């Protein structure tokens, strides 16, 4: 398992002359903690490489804060599913989340991990209300406690759901070797338009 965790940025206003903006090609969202940017990359990588690729853009595999973000992800991925030759009408992509240690494989007592937000956490600390999307969309089975990272499955006809990837020792989605149709990257918006504090004489 490997996913990058976001750190809360700190900003300093210089004469109150700044604004937040996403890079070209990134979609902006209004989160409770500020403007947030996401981009889908239609490249098949294992989870750990996808996380490393996001880091090259100072980003990480994101969590999902709202239905607005969820719907945008679904609509963004959906056209790519039909591009898979002779493929199924569904596709997968990486988002950023992991099973918490108390609910991990071979723990002596994980009976209390009865809902998704008990067992998993987003790796995205620029996110508020983290349980909402997890509890609504994550398919949880505590019989598969070796499944540690989160993917989103998009069905072309009837929406999407969150699932979790599994170890190479079990059948199913393997977070090391499985390569879905792509991955999401997310990050807080950049600051643009700061006035310089330098002066000329």
Automatic annotation (TrEMBL):
InterPro entries: C-type_lectin-like, C-type_lectin-like/link_sf, CTDL_fold. SUPFAM superfamilies: C-type lectin-like (SSF56436). Residues 22-186 form the C-type lectin domain. Signal peptide: none annotated. It comes from the Eukaryota. This is C-type lectin domain-containing protein.
């Amino acid at each position: 398992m490997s996913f990058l965790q976001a750190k809360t940025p700190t900003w300093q206003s210089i004469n109150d002359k700044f604004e937040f903006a996403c890079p070209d090609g990134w979609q902006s969202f209004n989160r409770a903690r500020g403007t947030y940017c996401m981009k889908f990359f239609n490249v098949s990588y294992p989870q750990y490489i996808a996380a490393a690729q996001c880091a090259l853009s100072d980003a990480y595999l994101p969590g999902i804060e709202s239905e607005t973000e969820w719907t945008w992800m679904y609509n963004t991925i959906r056209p790519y599913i039909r591009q898979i030759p002779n493929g199924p009408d569904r596709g997968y992509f990486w988002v950023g989340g992991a099973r918490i240690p108390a609910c991990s494989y071979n723990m002596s007592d994980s009976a209390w991990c009865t809902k998704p937000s008990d067992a998993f956490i987003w790796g995205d600390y620029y996110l508020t209300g983290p349980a909402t999307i997890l509890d609504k969309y994550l398919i949880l089975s505590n019989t598969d406690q070796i499944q540690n990272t989160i993917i989103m499955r998009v069905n072309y006809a009837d929406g999407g759901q969150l699932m979790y990837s599994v170890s190479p020792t079990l059948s199913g989605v393997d977070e090391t070797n499985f390569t879905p149709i792509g991955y999401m990257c997310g990050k807080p918006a950049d600051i643009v338009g700061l006035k310089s504090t330098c002066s000329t004489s």
